[in-house]
Structure prediction request, 546 residues.
Amino acid sequence: MKKKTVKLISAVVVLGVACGAYVGVNSYVSSQEAKEAEKENKSVDLISLKADAVTAVSFKADDADVEFDKKDDSWTEKSDADFPVNQDTVDDAVKGVASLTADQEISDVENLSQYELDDPQNTITLTTADGDTTLQVGMESSNNQYYVKKVDDDKNVYLVASTSLEPFMGGLYDFAESGTFPSVTSATITDIKVDKEDGYELTQDADNLFWNVSDGKDTEKADTTKAGNVTSAIGSLAYDKFVDYNCTDDAKYGFDDPYAVVTVKYTEEEAVESDEEDADSEESTESSEENTDADSDTAESADASEEDSSEDEQETRTVEKTLTIYVGDETGDDRYVKVDDSKEVYTITKDSLTDILDSTISDFYSLTVNYVSVNDLDSLEIKSDDGDHTVDVVRETAKAEDEEESDTDTDTSDESSADVDSSDETTSDTTTTSYELDGEELDESAFTTFYNKLINMTAQERLTEEYTPDGEAAYTFLFKDTDGNETTAEYYEYDTNFYAAVVGDKVYLVNKMNVKELNDAYQDMINPDTEDAETTDTEDESTEEN
Prediction:
């Protein structure tokens, strides 16, 4: 028993020593790793140059060598002196690398390929009076950093924040001074022509109240909302990327055979030229010289007042302008575009062009079957299975009574004053409107309910293919307006879900539920006694129960 106890104590002691040794070794390893991590994470000044001292910067862009040279504080592209360099963009990019600090240094590198520095994706060289400083750029890490090294050092690799190098990792035109898409306010647009396969033209009417749409053969009133989508899209267009400042080959971007040519006509307010103002002033002066001497002082005073007013308020005039947009080939999610006679080529996102380019004339068709305002209606003839009926609009005008004449025994001045007062007082005739069904008085409320459903009938779509009705029309409505114009709308059963409403050469598909609601209102109008009888029967039944 004693031997077992001794052995047990010895085992515990050995275990304690082992644990202590493990803890000691683990602490040492952790300490060494921490020191190593601290060493590796220590920032390093990689490039220390004054940005103003840099006279040239070269790098790769679009798989080509690019070099910007600075002379007299102005940057130019070495291979193309006419390239529109954005001076601020180059300055900012140079500042980002002229004073460059690495977040981490990796020493004693044996294999550059693991950082993709055996074949760098970019080489950036800054030139000063003291020579060149070159940095090679490898792969990008998961922490938004680039692995880089100096060109003459293959043993040390550094991690640099991507924000410092990102300006050099794009394309040449990231350094270009780009233009902006011409500003056109959607509300000022008066005409849009989209010349392409299945193209169309939208034109405002003379009073700018509505839009017409045409495919070059047929013209009709367009849906206001859908036309507004196009004008809004044009007013919101913006360039995405700058591609070419001097296009000499239209075929390169698809402009030799454009996908579409969009011509926009719009109005704009512009200041009146000073020459025109001077001409108006001279005319005013000549006119004043013709006045008599007695009026000269007054005329001069008026001229001076007009001159002061013209200085405070700038005169403007409305001018018509035209914008032509050439739309070329697709490039990713964009399309190439150029405007008017400019040689500059940009891209615009396809999404922003959708409402303009993907629409056809049928997309602008109004889905209102037919609309004749009740104020313009003279009569409505209706044919259905319930027989033929006619609703006449009866308008009666009553003349307003004349105002009593003023007393005649007043003096001359009073008579003159009375005449003036009498002329200022306006009187108007009173018009009352009523409705007759087949010559009998018609309840106004019942007719209004029915008529509103009729003229506000909206289709779900309009047929573009030829349609030949099968059988007789379920409903025929003949509208006659006060100007003698006639419009006929015929409703045919189309399928289990729709009626085909035919108005002239237009065919609308109308939901059957909407037609049922129309028919219910029609029945209430032509059979008012039935509703009264049903009400009476209900009241009688209630009385009997009591």
